[in-house]
Amino acid sequence: MEERPQLTAEYFDSWYADMVNSPRLDAITQRHLGLPPSLLSTSLLSWDAIGDVEEALGLSPGDTLLDLACGRGGYGLELAERTGAHLVGVDFSAEAIRQAAGLAEQLGREANFLVGELESIGLDDGSVDALLCVDAIQFAGDSAVAYSELRRILVPGGRAVLTAWTAIDPADQRVPERLRLVDLAGGLAAAGFEDVRVREQVAWRAAERGLWEEAAMLDPGDDPALQSLRDEAKTVLPVSELTRRVMAVATTGVEKLGAPE
After folding, report:
1. Taking the model in full, what pTM does it have?
2. Rounded CA gap, 121 and 91, in Å?
3. Which of 64, 73, 86, 118 is the most buried (most CB within 10 A)?
4. Burial (CB count within 10 angstroms: exposed 0-12, middle 13-18, buried 19+), residue 5
5. Contacts of 37 (CB under 8 A, 6+ apart)
6. Architecture category of domain 9-251 in CATH
7. What residues contact residue 153 under an 8 Å CB cut-off, 6+ apart?
8. Edge to edge, what strands does the sheet with 86-91 contain?
9. What confidence tens digit (pLDDT) does each residue in 218-248 have?
10. What is the pLDDT of residues 5-26, one digit of tens each?
11. Which of 33, 11, 9, 3 is nearest to 211 (CA)?
12. Could you give the CA distance from residue 105 to residue 102 in angstroms, rounded to a whole number?
């Protein structure tokens, strides 16, 4: 939720590289979010939240799932393992893609990981059955183009699931601008999605808050990943009550056999 100093691929390459040598970071995150050691997360979906996302995606064995802004690949790999879907992960950080591919190999799971952007995913029209974008849509340089790109790569009847934080009051200057500009319902509808639903996920917040509270009190020493986590916690906590934790679900309009109502 912080305003990052630079939002370039190079910045995130360095950010991900720092995580490799920070077992304390993964231990803290996994403990608060209830994740197994094999699931390397980048954002803040808890084990229970992954279950909510799984239900919303409505995947069937053999479907293609796109994990957009996949980071180190943990969420997408877990969902593919649970559902029998084929995973494609896309991120604009080459370092994230390198780590995600390494994790898949370590776990013995098949997946394709590619470098791409929110506004230029790099996949063919109608090539995926469902897509997940975890806490990243706010980083799009042009959000309208990004939402249209999501619509383009989905099959007829495909399903999009996006998680985010949004401002309770978009005019509240205390909330970072990137979150004040997030409009999941409006963006998805304008791109041609149907059955758009945006629901607050109150239950997700307790695990997240516990993580931020511990992180704010950390002594990171010379660990840059922990330093980044502590700095972000000090940015997030003062405005946490000014935001909502939400999940958006939308379809391309043609009912897909087997998808949940």
Report:
1. 0.92
2. 9
3. 73
4. exposed
5. 26, 30
6. 3-Layer(aba) Sandwich (3.40)
7. 66, 121, 123, 124, 125, 126, 127, 128, 131
8. 111-115, 86-91, 64-68, 128-134, 154-167, 243-251, 194-200
9. 999 999 999 999 999 999 999 999 999 999 9
10. 457 888 999 999 999 989 999 9
11. 33
12. 5
Q: Please name which of 240, 210, 211, 165 lies closest in space to residue 26, comparing C-alpha atoms.
A: 211
Residue position matching structure tokens 């700095």? 231
Give the model's pLDDT for residue 255: 53
At 154, list the tokens. 């989905």
The type of residue at 112 is N
List, for residues 126-153, the tens digit of each pLDDT value: 999 999 999 999 999 999 999 999 999 9
Q: What digits encode the pLDDT tens for the residues 100-134?
A: 999 999 999 999 999 999 999 999 999 999 999 99
